[in-house]
């Protein structure tokens, strides 16, 4: 998922991490959107985002062996039942976006009009969305005013192979 490094000014970063590249904050956000990594309240709205739907289990952000945390019962029950219908996924917009961008929380639909999920956040042609896994491989769209904005979702390579099915 990349590295973040704090080093002394003037340090030779390629010496510390061979093959590394220096980027700015926009590069960082583009990278995490491509990887489907949530960060902050836009991607993980308080009171709405669930740990398993947010892929925190894949990032070792949930312990199923230690005790008490808020939401533990629901998270553990969902994990042990093995049924997670929605997850945060990277999305790509193939065409130029409207000048107003995509509003957070915009409803994502399949081409046949079924609800597929909600757009959480993004920048440029990349973003992150909470999607029903059953619709991940279908053509998707968002209706904005009179425009129909197409998008596609992908399963990140870093996910466990069983989860990508």
Give a short overview:
The chain has 165 residues and is α+β, with helices and mostly antiparallel strands.
Q: Can you describe this structure?
A:
Helices cover 18% and strands 24% of the residues. The chain has 4 helices and 6 strands, in the order H-H-H-H-E-E-E-E-E-E. Strands 1-4-3-2-5-6 form a 6-stranded antiparallel beta barrel. Strand 2 (107-110) and strand 3 (115-123) form a beta hairpin. It comes from Cyanistes caeruleus. Keywords: Mitochondrion, Transit peptide. Its main location: mitochondrion. One of its GO terms (biological process) is iron-sulfur cluster assembly.
What does the main sheet amount to?
A: 6 strands, antiparallel, barrel
Percent strand: 15-25%
Strand order of the largest sheet: 1-4-3-2-5-6
Percent helix, as a range, is 10-25%
Q: Name the poorly predicted regions.
A: none
Distance between the termini: 21 Å
Average pLDDT rating: 86
What is the gyration radius calculated from CA atoms?
Answer: 18 Å
Oligomer: single chain
Number of strands: 6
The shape is globular
Provide the structure class. Answer: alpha+beta
H/E element sequence: HHHHEEEEEE
Q: DSSP helix count?
A: 4
